[in-house]
Amino acid sequence: MSDSPAPLATGPLGMRLLAFERLPEDSRFTEAPVGYVLVALWHAGLLLLVHVRHRDCWELPGGSIDPVGVPPACGGETPRRAAVRELREESGQLVAPDDLRFAGFARTALPDRRVLRGAVYAAETAAPTAFAPTEEITGIHWWNLEDPMPHGQLQTVDAYLAALARV
C-alpha cells in the first residue's frame, strides 16, 4: 500500500502527472529541476497537438531545455526560449517569447519512476503557419478537446495540462 497521492492524470504510455505547481516562473528546485517545456497553443478555441512518430502519440509541442553553458547566465537556454524553439521545431508555429504566458510547473513521473519537472506555457495565435512533417513529428492537429484523434493515441497528461493552462 502506497501513501503517495493518486496522480492528477495518467497517460497511455505510462506517464503520470504528480502535481501542477502554480509558482513563479523563476522558481528554482533542488528535487526534480526544470528540464523540459510544453506549450499549449490555441487558435479559435482549438488546441495544437503534434503527432510524435516514434511514440505514435498526440502531444503538446515541447521538449528538453538546451543545457549548453548552464546556467542561462552562461549562455544556456531559458525555459521560455526553449518553449519558443520547441514550438517552432515541432510545429512550424512562430510565437514571440513575450507572447507566452507562463502557466506553472508540471511534475511528472515516467514509467521508469524517474520524476521530472517541466515549465508549461500557453499562447494564442491568430494566424497558424503551414506545417511540414519532420523525422520526429508526422503531423499537427488543431483539437477541440473532445473529438477522437485522427490516428494514434492521445497523451492524456498533456490534454489535462493544456486545460489547466488554457488562455
From TrEMBL:
SUPFAM superfamilies: Nudix. InterPro entries: NUDIX_hydrolase-like_dom_sf (IPR015797), NUDIX_hydrolase_dom (IPR000086). Gene3D superfamilies: Nucleoside Triphosphate Pyrophosphohydrolase (3.90.79.10). It holds the Pfam family NUDIX. Residues 29-167 form the Nudix hydrolase domain. Belongs to the Nudix hydrolase family. This is NUDIX domain-containing protein.
